Amino acid sequence: LSPGLLVVAGSFAAFRLLNRGLERLVPPPPSARRNRWKWRNIWTSLAHSALPDAHNLSPRRFYLHPEMSKDLVGTHPPGAHSLVAVSVGYFLEDFVDMLCNQKLHQSWELLFHHSVVIICFGIAVLLHQYVGFALVALLVEINSIFLHLRQILLMANLVHTTCYRLNSLINLGTYVVFRIATLAWMTRWLFLNRQNVPPATYAVGTLGMAIMTPMNIVLFYRLLRSDFFK
């Protein structure tokens, strides 16, 4: 087995153990006790979202490594490959968790999203290429921190608090910057570098962008309608 696959397997096991123990670490409030698995699931997702910043792989890393903007195929900072492999393990764990605990008609969008991410990130882990491109995609997780906090506040029945309102504003702002703008930049990079990317990989990347972009626009509309135009 390649080291990357071992990291994926270790990450899957670690997030699975974290998921099992979270109810003791963060006991659900009375309003969330009817859906305990969802409470654990969101906190597990929040832990993963904090990983890019914890590994100092935030936008600052791209500033410190300007060569990455020119070569997202073979160039990446130290630790980036392992972080992408850890993320594959998390998405696999979350996929299994939803498949086992939620009805398909309630989770098919996220399952579809996770499938695309696992395939795209899996290619980067196995080939040790396009890790920089996957790293750009992980900037999305900066917004995911506030997206998961929103769900936690909703489950804790704190929707009418100042904390929820403030989080909604930050969530919307980071959504535009780290989701919509990031996906637009990735789509542009793929288009400009189509001659330097093998046809099969280019097809997977283009398909991934074609799926992710509409999904994120629809989610943005739902957030806007729910938190500001309700």
From TrEMBL:
The keyword Membrane applies. It is found in: Membrane. One of its GO terms (cellular component) is plasma membrane. The chain crosses the membrane at residues 133-149, 169-191, 203-224. It is a multi-pass membrane protein. Residues 34-230 form the TLC domain. This is TLCD2 protein. It comes from Cettia cetti. The gene is Tlcd2.
